[in-house]
Write a structure and sequence with these properties.
Blueprint (H helix, E strand, L loop, with lengths): L6 E4 L17 H9 L19 H11 L6 H4 L16 H9 L19 H12 L18 H12 L19 H14 L6 E5 L4 E3 L2 E8 L4 E7 L3 E4 L2 E4 L8 E5 L7 E5 L1 E11 L4 E6 L4 E5 L6 E3 L2 E3 L9 E6 L5 E7 L3 E9 L4 E5 L6 E13 L2 E3 L9 E6 L5 E7 L7
Parallel strand pairs: 1-5, 6-9, 13-16, 19-22
Antiparallel strand pairs: 2-4, 2-8, 3-4, 4-5, 6-7, 8-9, 10-11, 10-15, 11-12, 13-14, 15-16, 17-18, 17-21, 18-19, 19-20, 21-22
Helix pairs in contact: 1-7, 2-4, 2-7, 5-6
Protein backbone atom coordinates (compact mmCIF):
# COMPACT_ATOMS: atom_id res chain seq x y z
CA UNK A 1 0.00 0.00 0.00
CA UNK A 2 1.50 3.31 -1.08
CA UNK A 3 0.44 6.09 1.27
CA UNK A 4 -0.11 9.46 -0.35
CA UNK A 5 0.81 12.55 1.65
CA UNK A 6 1.45 10.24 4.58
CA UNK A 7 2.28 11.46 8.05
CA UNK A 8 4.48 9.27 10.21
CA UNK A 9 4.06 9.15 13.97
CA UNK A 10 6.44 7.08 16.07
CA UNK A 11 4.85 6.42 19.45
CA UNK A 12 7.60 5.69 22.00
CA UNK A 13 5.42 4.61 24.91
CA UNK A 14 4.46 0.99 25.51
CA UNK A 15 1.01 -0.46 25.21
CA UNK A 16 -1.49 0.83 27.73
CA UNK A 17 -1.76 -1.34 30.82
CA UNK A 18 -5.34 -1.53 32.06
CA UNK A 19 -6.15 -1.51 35.75
CA UNK A 20 -6.39 -5.07 37.01
CA UNK A 21 -9.99 -4.70 38.18
CA UNK A 22 -11.21 -3.04 34.97
CA UNK A 23 -9.95 -5.56 32.39
CA UNK A 24 -13.29 -7.40 32.34
CA UNK A 25 -15.49 -4.62 33.74
CA UNK A 26 -18.17 -2.96 31.60
CA UNK A 27 -16.44 0.41 32.04
CA UNK A 28 -13.15 -0.63 30.42
CA UNK A 29 -13.78 1.12 27.05
CA UNK A 30 -14.36 4.35 28.99
CA UNK A 31 -11.70 4.08 31.69
CA UNK A 32 -8.79 2.96 29.47
CA UNK A 33 -8.72 5.94 27.04
CA UNK A 34 -9.22 8.38 29.92
CA UNK A 35 -6.30 6.78 31.78
CA UNK A 36 -4.14 7.12 28.68
CA UNK A 37 -5.04 10.82 28.56
CA UNK A 38 -4.22 11.23 32.25
CA UNK A 39 -7.82 12.16 33.11
CA UNK A 40 -8.37 9.30 35.57
CA UNK A 41 -5.90 7.59 37.83
CA UNK A 42 -5.79 4.36 39.76
CA UNK A 43 -4.71 3.47 43.27
CA UNK A 44 -1.27 2.32 44.45
CA UNK A 45 -2.49 -1.28 44.40
CA UNK A 46 -2.85 -1.09 40.61
CA UNK A 47 -6.64 -1.06 40.70
CA UNK A 48 -9.21 1.51 39.65
CA UNK A 49 -11.98 0.47 42.06
CA UNK A 50 -14.74 1.18 39.54
CA UNK A 51 -17.62 0.59 41.98
CA UNK A 52 -16.43 3.07 44.55
CA UNK A 53 -18.47 6.26 44.78
CA UNK A 54 -16.89 9.41 43.36
CA UNK A 55 -16.72 12.70 45.26
CA UNK A 56 -17.74 16.11 43.99
CA UNK A 57 -14.10 17.23 43.86
CA UNK A 58 -13.00 14.07 42.02
CA UNK A 59 -15.66 14.44 39.33
CA UNK A 60 -14.95 18.14 38.81
CA UNK A 61 -11.24 17.37 38.42
CA UNK A 62 -12.09 14.72 35.85
CA UNK A 63 -14.19 17.11 33.77
CA UNK A 64 -11.71 19.97 33.95
CA UNK A 65 -8.82 17.73 32.88
CA UNK A 66 -10.96 16.26 30.09
CA UNK A 67 -11.59 19.70 28.63
CA UNK A 68 -8.02 20.95 29.25
CA UNK A 69 -8.99 23.91 31.38
CA UNK A 70 -7.18 23.72 34.74
CA UNK A 71 -6.11 26.95 36.43
CA UNK A 72 -2.43 27.01 37.41
CA UNK A 73 -2.00 26.75 41.17
CA UNK A 74 0.43 29.67 41.20
CA UNK A 75 -2.33 31.92 39.85
CA UNK A 76 -4.76 30.89 42.58
CA UNK A 77 -2.17 31.26 45.32
CA UNK A 78 -2.63 35.04 45.27
CA UNK A 79 -6.43 35.00 45.17
CA UNK A 80 -8.95 34.37 47.94
CA UNK A 81 -10.83 31.04 47.68
CA UNK A 82 -14.21 31.16 45.95
CA UNK A 83 -15.78 28.74 48.45
CA UNK A 84 -15.61 29.11 52.19
CA UNK A 85 -14.61 25.48 52.80
CA UNK A 86 -11.87 25.42 50.14
CA UNK A 87 -8.49 25.77 51.84
CA UNK A 88 -5.80 27.57 49.78
CA UNK A 89 -3.68 24.40 49.54
CA UNK A 90 -6.47 21.90 48.88
CA UNK A 91 -5.53 19.48 46.09
CA UNK A 92 -8.74 20.14 44.13
CA UNK A 93 -8.85 23.92 44.39
CA UNK A 94 -7.44 24.62 40.92
CA UNK A 95 -9.98 22.32 39.28
CA UNK A 96 -12.98 23.42 41.34
CA UNK A 97 -12.37 27.11 40.84
CA UNK A 98 -11.71 26.62 37.13
CA UNK A 99 -15.09 24.88 36.85
CA UNK A 100 -16.76 27.69 38.81
CA UNK A 101 -15.18 30.39 36.61
CA UNK A 102 -16.51 28.53 33.56
CA UNK A 103 -20.00 28.46 35.01
CA UNK A 104 -20.24 24.69 35.36
CA UNK A 105 -21.06 24.42 39.06
CA UNK A 106 -24.56 24.62 40.56
CA UNK A 107 -23.07 26.42 43.57
CA UNK A 108 -22.80 30.13 44.33
CA UNK A 109 -19.60 31.89 45.31
CA UNK A 110 -19.29 32.25 49.05
CA UNK A 111 -21.11 28.98 49.69
CA UNK A 112 -19.52 25.74 50.71
CA UNK A 113 -18.49 23.37 47.90
CA UNK A 114 -18.38 20.21 50.04
CA UNK A 115 -15.84 18.60 47.75
CA UNK A 116 -15.42 15.45 49.84
CA UNK A 117 -19.12 14.56 49.64
CA UNK A 118 -20.26 12.03 47.06
CA UNK A 119 -21.71 13.59 43.93
CA UNK A 120 -25.30 12.89 42.87
CA UNK A 121 -26.59 12.15 39.39
CA UNK A 122 -28.48 15.45 39.36
CA UNK A 123 -25.27 17.38 40.07
CA UNK A 124 -23.38 15.39 37.43
CA UNK A 125 -26.06 16.17 34.86
CA UNK A 126 -25.75 19.92 35.49
CA UNK A 127 -21.95 19.93 35.31
CA UNK A 128 -21.89 17.74 32.17
CA UNK A 129 -24.60 19.74 30.39
CA UNK A 130 -22.87 23.04 31.11
CA UNK A 131 -19.37 21.76 30.32
CA UNK A 132 -20.52 20.10 27.10
CA UNK A 133 -22.60 23.06 26.02
CA UNK A 134 -25.74 20.94 25.66
CA UNK A 135 -28.07 23.85 26.37
CA UNK A 136 -31.77 23.47 27.03
CA UNK A 137 -32.86 22.74 23.47
CA UNK A 138 -32.33 18.97 23.66
CA UNK A 139 -35.52 16.88 23.57
CA UNK A 140 -36.57 15.95 27.07
CA UNK A 141 -36.95 12.24 27.86
CA UNK A 142 -39.86 11.45 30.18
CA UNK A 143 -38.63 9.90 33.41
CA UNK A 144 -40.95 8.00 35.71
CA UNK A 145 -39.45 9.92 38.65
CA UNK A 146 -39.38 13.31 36.89
CA UNK A 147 -41.06 14.85 39.93
CA UNK A 148 -38.02 13.92 42.04
CA UNK A 149 -35.56 15.80 39.83
CA UNK A 150 -34.77 19.22 41.37
CA UNK A 151 -35.95 22.13 39.26
CA UNK A 152 -32.36 23.36 38.93
CA UNK A 153 -31.32 20.03 37.35
CA UNK A 154 -34.37 19.07 35.27
CA UNK A 155 -33.30 20.61 31.96
CA UNK A 156 -29.71 19.44 32.42
CA UNK A 157 -30.80 15.86 33.13
CA UNK A 158 -32.91 15.83 29.97
CA UNK A 159 -30.04 17.29 27.93
CA UNK A 160 -27.40 14.91 29.30
CA UNK A 161 -29.56 11.88 28.48
CA UNK A 162 -30.54 13.23 25.06
CA UNK A 163 -26.86 13.81 24.23
CA UNK A 164 -26.06 10.23 25.22
CA UNK A 165 -23.73 11.20 28.07
CA UNK A 166 -25.95 9.72 30.77
CA UNK A 167 -28.48 6.90 30.81
CA UNK A 168 -31.83 6.48 32.43
CA UNK A 169 -32.61 3.16 34.09
CA UNK A 170 -34.60 0.25 32.59
CA UNK A 171 -37.56 1.12 34.80
CA UNK A 172 -37.74 4.55 33.17
CA UNK A 173 -36.32 6.42 36.16
CA UNK A 174 -33.41 8.85 36.35
CA UNK A 175 -32.68 8.58 40.11
CA UNK A 176 -31.38 12.13 40.58
CA UNK A 177 -30.28 11.51 44.17
CA UNK A 178 -28.31 8.40 43.22
CA UNK A 179 -24.57 8.43 43.90
CA UNK A 180 -22.26 8.08 40.90
CA UNK A 181 -19.54 5.41 40.93
CA UNK A 182 -16.05 5.93 39.51
CA UNK A 183 -16.97 3.74 36.56
CA UNK A 184 -20.10 5.77 35.85
CA UNK A 185 -18.17 9.03 36.15
CA UNK A 186 -15.63 7.75 33.61
CA UNK A 187 -18.47 6.76 31.27
CA UNK A 188 -20.06 10.23 31.42
CA UNK A 189 -16.72 11.93 30.77
CA UNK A 190 -15.68 9.62 27.92
CA UNK A 191 -19.07 9.86 26.22
CA UNK A 192 -18.97 13.65 26.37
CA UNK A 193 -15.48 13.71 24.87
CA UNK A 194 -16.41 11.17 22.18
CA UNK A 195 -19.47 13.19 21.17
CA UNK A 196 -17.21 16.20 20.69
CA UNK A 197 -14.59 14.22 18.74
CA UNK A 198 -12.05 14.77 21.51
CA UNK A 199 -11.63 11.35 23.13
CA UNK A 200 -9.05 10.07 20.62
CA UNK A 201 -6.13 11.70 18.80
CA UNK A 202 -6.27 9.45 15.74
CA UNK A 203 -9.45 8.00 14.21
CA UNK A 204 -9.69 6.15 10.90
CA UNK A 205 -9.37 2.69 9.39
CA UNK A 206 -6.50 0.43 8.36
CA UNK A 207 -5.61 0.51 4.67
CA UNK A 208 -3.13 -2.37 5.00
CA UNK A 209 -2.33 -5.17 7.39
CA UNK A 210 -0.09 -4.15 10.35
CA UNK A 211 3.54 -4.39 9.25
CA UNK A 212 6.30 -5.53 11.66
CA UNK A 213 9.41 -3.33 11.53
CA UNK A 214 12.02 -4.55 13.99
CA UNK A 215 10.63 -4.13 17.49
CA UNK A 216 7.71 -2.02 16.26
CA UNK A 217 4.51 -2.45 14.25
CA UNK A 218 3.48 0.08 11.62
CA UNK A 219 -0.19 0.88 11.08
CA UNK A 220 -1.26 2.43 7.77
CA UNK A 221 -4.38 4.47 8.55
CA UNK A 222 -6.81 6.44 6.42
CA UNK A 223 -7.88 9.23 8.76
CA UNK A 224 -11.50 10.35 8.97
CA UNK A 225 -10.50 13.57 7.23
CA UNK A 226 -9.26 11.59 4.21
CA UNK A 227 -5.51 11.94 4.83
CA UNK A 228 -3.20 8.93 5.09
CA UNK A 229 -0.91 8.38 8.05
CA UNK A 230 1.53 5.77 9.33
CA UNK A 231 1.85 5.17 13.06
CA UNK A 232 4.54 3.00 14.57
CA UNK A 233 3.77 1.32 17.86
CA UNK A 234 5.82 -1.00 20.05
CA UNK A 235 5.45 -4.62 18.95
CA UNK A 236 4.09 -5.36 22.43
CA UNK A 237 1.17 -2.94 21.97
CA UNK A 238 -2.33 -4.34 22.29
CA UNK A 239 -5.70 -3.17 21.02
CA UNK A 240 -9.14 -3.45 22.60
CA UNK A 241 -10.83 -5.42 19.85
CA UNK A 242 -14.26 -7.01 19.99
CA UNK A 243 -14.39 -7.03 23.78
CA UNK A 244 -10.89 -8.42 24.36
CA UNK A 245 -7.24 -7.41 24.18
CA UNK A 246 -5.30 -8.59 21.13
CA UNK A 247 -1.81 -7.74 19.79
CA UNK A 248 -2.05 -4.86 17.32
CA UNK A 249 -0.32 -7.11 14.78
CA UNK A 250 -3.52 -9.21 14.66
CA UNK A 251 -5.70 -6.36 13.43
CA UNK A 252 -6.91 -6.59 9.84
CA UNK A 253 -7.27 -4.41 6.78
CA UNK A 254 -10.37 -2.17 7.00
CA UNK A 255 -10.58 -2.42 10.79
CA UNK A 256 -11.67 0.91 12.25
CA UNK A 257 -9.16 2.20 14.78
CA UNK A 258 -8.97 4.96 17.38
CA UNK A 259 -5.83 5.84 19.31
CA UNK A 260 -4.80 8.04 22.21
CA UNK A 261 -1.18 8.99 21.50
CA UNK A 262 -0.60 12.39 23.11
CA UNK A 263 -1.51 11.80 26.75
CA UNK A 264 0.90 11.32 29.64
CA UNK A 265 -0.22 7.70 29.93
CA UNK A 266 0.75 4.81 27.65
CA UNK A 267 -0.76 4.69 24.15
CA UNK A 268 -4.27 3.27 23.94
CA UNK A 269 -5.58 1.51 20.83
CA UNK A 270 -9.19 0.57 20.16
CA UNK A 271 -10.22 -1.38 17.06
CA UNK A 272 -13.61 -2.31 15.71
CA UNK A 273 -14.96 -4.33 12.83
CA UNK A 274 -18.59 -4.72 11.94
CA UNK A 275 -19.54 -7.36 9.41
CA UNK A 276 -22.70 -8.74 7.90
CA UNK A 277 -23.46 -11.49 5.41
CA UNK A 278 -26.37 -11.77 3.05
CA UNK A 279 -27.62 -12.26 -0.49
CA UNK A 280 -27.79 -9.36 -2.93
CA UNK A 281 -31.18 -8.11 -4.08
CA UNK A 282 -29.90 -5.17 -6.10
CA UNK A 283 -27.10 -2.62 -6.31
CA UNK A 284 -27.73 0.98 -7.36
CA UNK A 285 -24.34 2.48 -8.32
CA UNK A 286 -25.78 5.93 -9.05
CA UNK A 287 -26.98 6.19 -5.44
CA UNK A 288 -24.09 4.26 -3.93
CA UNK A 289 -26.47 1.81 -2.22
CA UNK A 290 -27.01 -1.93 -2.04
CA UNK A 291 -30.10 -3.84 -0.96
CA UNK A 292 -29.80 -7.40 0.33
CA UNK A 293 -31.37 -10.10 2.46
CA UNK A 294 -29.49 -10.63 5.73
CA UNK A 295 -28.92 -13.96 7.45
CA UNK A 296 -32.44 -13.88 8.91
CA UNK A 297 -34.02 -13.13 5.55
CA UNK A 298 -34.73 -9.49 6.45
CA UNK A 299 -34.44 -6.97 3.64
CA UNK A 300 -31.81 -4.30 4.32
CA UNK A 301 -30.43 -1.31 2.44
CA UNK A 302 -27.12 0.41 3.16
CA UNK A 303 -25.05 3.23 1.73
CA UNK A 304 -21.66 2.22 0.37
CA UNK A 305 -18.85 4.60 1.32
CA UNK A 306 -17.28 6.51 -1.56
CA UNK A 307 -14.13 4.68 -2.65
CA UNK A 308 -15.06 1.49 -0.78
CA UNK A 309 -13.26 -1.50 -2.32
CA UNK A 310 -15.54 -3.96 -4.11
CA UNK A 311 -14.56 -7.49 -5.09
CA UNK A 312 -16.47 -10.18 -6.93
CA UNK A 313 -15.22 -13.74 -7.14
CA UNK A 314 -11.88 -12.65 -5.69
CA UNK A 315 -11.23 -9.90 -8.23
CA UNK A 316 -11.56 -6.10 -8.11
CA UNK A 317 -14.99 -5.02 -9.30
CA UNK A 318 -17.50 -2.18 -9.18
CA UNK A 319 -21.00 -2.04 -7.75
CA UNK A 320 -22.32 -2.29 -11.30
CA UNK A 321 -20.66 -5.72 -11.64
CA UNK A 322 -22.64 -7.27 -8.80
CA UNK A 323 -25.58 -9.49 -9.70
CA UNK A 324 -28.76 -10.36 -7.85
CA UNK A 325 -28.25 -13.54 -5.85
CA UNK A 326 -24.56 -12.93 -5.18
CA UNK A 327 -23.48 -13.94 -1.68
CA UNK A 328 -22.18 -10.90 0.20
CA UNK A 329 -19.69 -10.27 2.96
CA UNK A 330 -19.90 -6.63 4.05
CA UNK A 331 -17.42 -4.77 6.22
CA UNK A 332 -19.42 -2.14 8.07
CA UNK A 333 -18.34 1.23 9.39
CA UNK A 334 -19.52 2.60 12.72
CA UNK A 335 -21.91 4.93 10.93
CA UNK A 336 -23.73 1.90 9.50
CA UNK A 337 -22.40 2.37 5.99
CA UNK A 338 -20.46 -0.23 4.03
CA UNK A 339 -16.68 0.03 4.15
CA UNK A 340 -16.02 -2.87 1.73
CA UNK A 341 -17.99 -5.40 -0.35
CA UNK A 342 -16.91 -8.96 -1.09
CA UNK A 343 -19.33 -10.75 -3.42
CA UNK A 344 -19.28 -14.36 -4.59
CA UNK A 345 -21.43 -16.24 -7.06
CA UNK A 346 -21.61 -19.70 -5.51
CA UNK A 347 -22.01 -22.03 -8.49
CA UNK A 348 -20.45 -24.97 -6.65
CA UNK A 349 -20.70 -26.03 -3.01
CA UNK A 350 -19.40 -29.16 -1.36
CA UNK A 351 -16.29 -31.04 -0.36
CA UNK A 352 -13.19 -32.10 -2.30
CA UNK A 353 -13.45 -35.88 -2.66
CA UNK A 354 -10.56 -36.34 -5.09
CA UNK A 355 -7.91 -34.18 -6.74
CA UNK A 356 -5.82 -34.51 -9.87
CA UNK A 357 -3.36 -31.65 -9.56
CA UNK A 358 -1.40 -32.83 -12.61
CA UNK A 359 -4.36 -31.84 -14.74
CA UNK A 360 -5.50 -29.11 -12.36
CA UNK A 361 -8.89 -30.54 -11.54
CA UNK A 362 -10.97 -31.31 -8.47
CA UNK A 363 -13.75 -33.83 -7.79
CA UNK A 364 -16.28 -31.74 -5.82
CA UNK A 365 -19.82 -32.20 -4.60
CA UNK A 366 -22.09 -32.45 -1.56
CA UNK A 367 -21.26 -36.18 -1.40
CA UNK A 368 -18.94 -38.49 -3.28
CA UNK A 369 -21.89 -39.93 -5.16
CA UNK A 370 -23.10 -36.52 -6.35
CA UNK A 371 -19.69 -35.02 -7.12
CA UNK A 372 -18.15 -34.18 -10.50
CA UNK A 373 -14.81 -33.08 -11.89
CA UNK A 374 -14.02 -29.37 -12.32
CA UNK A 375 -10.99 -27.93 -14.06
CA UNK A 376 -9.30 -24.90 -12.55
CA UNK A 377 -8.96 -21.84 -14.77
CA UNK A 378 -5.44 -20.60 -15.47
CA UNK A 379 -6.08 -17.51 -13.34
CA UNK A 380 -8.14 -19.19 -10.61
CA UNK A 381 -8.17 -17.25 -7.31
CA UNK A 382 -7.97 -19.42 -4.20
CA UNK A 383 -8.50 -18.57 -0.52
CA UNK A 384 -8.07 -21.13 2.26
CA UNK A 385 -9.52 -20.14 5.66
CA UNK A 386 -9.54 -16.51 4.53
CA UNK A 387 -5.92 -16.41 3.30
CA UNK A 388 -4.73 -16.25 -0.28
CA UNK A 389 -3.36 -19.61 -1.45
CA UNK A 390 -2.42 -21.56 -4.55
CA UNK A 391 -4.58 -24.12 -6.34
CA UNK A 392 -2.07 -26.79 -5.39
CA UNK A 393 -2.58 -26.04 -1.69
CA UNK A 394 -6.11 -27.48 -1.75
CA UNK A 395 -6.52 -30.83 0.02
CA UNK A 396 -8.93 -33.73 0.14
CA UNK A 397 -11.73 -33.03 2.58
CA UNK A 398 -11.61 -29.25 2.17
CA UNK A 399 -15.08 -27.74 2.20
CA UNK A 400 -15.57 -25.09 -0.40
CA UNK A 401 -17.76 -22.83 -2.44
CA UNK A 402 -16.67 -21.81 -5.91
CA UNK A 403 -17.62 -19.69 -8.92
CA UNK A 404 -17.30 -20.89 -12.51
CA UNK A 405 -16.25 -18.87 -15.53
CA UNK A 406 -18.13 -18.86 -18.84
CA UNK A 407 -16.44 -22.12 -19.88
CA UNK A 408 -17.41 -23.96 -16.67
CA UNK A 409 -13.95 -23.88 -15.12
CA UNK A 410 -13.23 -22.93 -11.51
CA UNK A 411 -12.65 -19.17 -11.46
CA UNK A 412 -12.77 -18.57 -7.71
CA UNK A 413 -12.47 -21.01 -4.78
CA UNK A 414 -13.06 -20.42 -1.07
CA UNK A 415 -11.93 -23.44 0.95
CA UNK A 416 -12.36 -24.01 4.68
CA UNK A 417 -10.63 -26.40 7.04
CA UNK A 418 -11.90 -24.86 10.26
CA UNK A 419 -15.27 -23.18 10.57
CA UNK A 420 -17.48 -22.94 7.51
CA UNK A 421 -19.00 -19.41 7.16
CA UNK A 422 -22.74 -19.00 6.98
CA UNK A 423 -22.74 -17.54 3.50
Amino acid sequence: MVLLAATLWAVPSPAAAVFTDVESHWSRPFVAPLAARGIVQGYPDGRFHPERPVTRAEFVRMMVLALDRPVPAQVLAHLPPVFTDMEPGHWSRAYVEAAWELGWLPVDAGDQFRGDEYITRAEVAVIAARAGGAGAASPAPRFSDAGDIPAWAARAAAAAVAEGWMDGYPDGSFRPAGILTRAEAAAVTARLLRSRGALFDVVGYLTAAPRPIGDRVELAIRLDGGEDASIRLPASAEAWYGGRSVPVAEMRVLDEVALVTSGPGPVYVEAWRGAEQGRLVMAVPSLGRITYLDGQGQRRSRAVHAGAPVARNGRPAALADLQAGDLLYLVLARDGGVRAVDAVRADVRGRIWAADLTWGRLFVGPSSGAARWYLGADDVVVFIDGRRAAFGDLRLGDRLLAALDSTGRLQYVEAYRREVPAR
